[in-house]
Design goal:
This protein has a single domain, classed as Immunoglobulins (Immunoglobulin-like, Sandwich). Helices cover 0% and strands 56% of the residues. The strands form four sheets. A five-stranded mixed sheet has the order 4-12-11-7-8, with no helix packed on it. Strands 1-6-9 form a three-stranded antiparallel sheet, with no helix packed on it. The relative contact order is 0.30. A hairpin with a 5-residue loop joins strand 11 and strand 12 (129-136). It is built from no helices and twelve strands. It has 140 residues and is mainly β. It is globular and about 50 Å long.
């Protein structure tokens, strides 16, 4: 099983089309947002992880997403960084071989500063996909 993409979004819309096939429309893709008020502030951005199970792949895996303030790789090759996690989500993923799917994660993240957090997404022991999200100062 593989991660095809992972993005912070505002909305997702699924449409069935002939084939049978499904079209996924993502809107409001974002990598930053202004704080809704003074700090500290808690927000819940929506992260969508698009996954694919190639033909012959195993049909069950664990999706782990760890959110932290460490925006770098710690150099040991596992992509996990060194910072303490702000939030963590683990969920089972079941996809038939040759099919695609998506998972939604909505963490509650408390920001004490205007800064960047990173979502580290991984299926089982596969590669880590880093997705940044920056909290900007409020718009005046």
């Amino acid at each position: 099983m593989r991660i095809v993409a992972a993005l912070f979004i505002e909305d997702i819309d699924l449409q069935s089309v002939p084939g049978p096939a499904t079209r996924i429309s993502l809107s409001g893709i974002q990598f930053s947002a202004p704080a809704p008020g003074p700090l500290p502030v808690t927000i819940g951005p929506h992260l969508v992880v698009l996954t694919w199970n190639p033909p012959g792949g195993k049909e069950v895996a664990a999706l782990e997403v760890v959110f932290s303030t460490d925006t770098s790789d710690d150099g040991d090759g596992d992509g996990d960084g060194d910072a303490e996690p702000l939030a963590r989500n683990v969920q089972p993923v079941t996809i038939e071989a040759g099919k695609f799917s998506y998972q939604l994660i909505r963490p509650e993240l408390t920001f004490d500063a205007h800064q960047t957090i990173v979502a580290r997404c991984r299926l089982d022991d596969g590669p880590v996909h880093l997705v940044p999200y920056t909290l900007l100062p409020p718009v005046r």
